[in-house]
Design goal:
Elements (H helix, E strand, L loop, with lengths): L1 H15 L1 H39 L1 H9 L4 E9 L8 E2 L11 E3 L4 E3 L3 E5 L5 E3 L4 E9 L3 E7 L4 E9 L8 E2 L4 E5 L12 E8 L2 E3 L2 H4 L4 E9 L1
Antiparallel strand pairs: 1-14, 2-5, 3-4, 5-12, 6-11, 7-8, 7-10, 8-9, 9-11, 9-12, 12-13
Helix pairs in contact: 2-3
The chain binds zinc ion.
Amino acid sequence: MSSTNQTNKFTRFLRNNAALLLLVFCVVAISAVVIAVSVTGDDPNTPVGGNPNDPIGGNPSDTPVDETPKPVIVKEKIYFSSPVAYQSVGMEYTDEEVLFVFNPTLNQWATHNGVDLIASENTPVTAMYDGTVVEVGESYGMGHYVKVDHGENVIATYASLADVQVVAGQNVQKGEKIGAVSTTASYEFADGAHLHLEITQNGEHVDPMAYVNGEIYREVEKTVTE
Ligand SMILES: [Zn+2]
């Protein structure tokens, strides 16, 4: 009986104070949520966000991806350059307007398919542009000569050379030494030491001076990284 009485009292207490109990429960629940948020809010951020990013290096591992050099294709003008540091021009090029120049060696007026660039003996002669040596030879009139295919149907003949340093089939780069100024061109002995330079475009002789003076260029596509 007494146990039944006590149960009834507890049930009656709950029923009479339901509102109060509900209020207390709500306060406790809200407090628990606030505490849980404030505590767990810090915890996940510090270990998960701080630790892995800092030691591994969050920033360094990100920046290379952002700053990875991107290849860009740009057009670059590459000029032909003078093949020799010359002091003066001896016999000039003869075209249809200037049919002949006087050749003091031969003591006669003659056509001259190139220019004679006068320089001290042994002055280096260099390739005017990248190319491939197509012929190395010697003739009585031209002396030692080197023919270089500079691409796009432009072939340069460097003659009256000594100290030829290239062989047929060899690739040469602009500025690379191919020989030296000398007096080996017997037909032009009176010019003294010089480079006899001829240039053909599509098989036709042209005045080499535009090339020598750095007026001729090609646009070359070049991949650069920025
Ligand atoms: Zn000449």
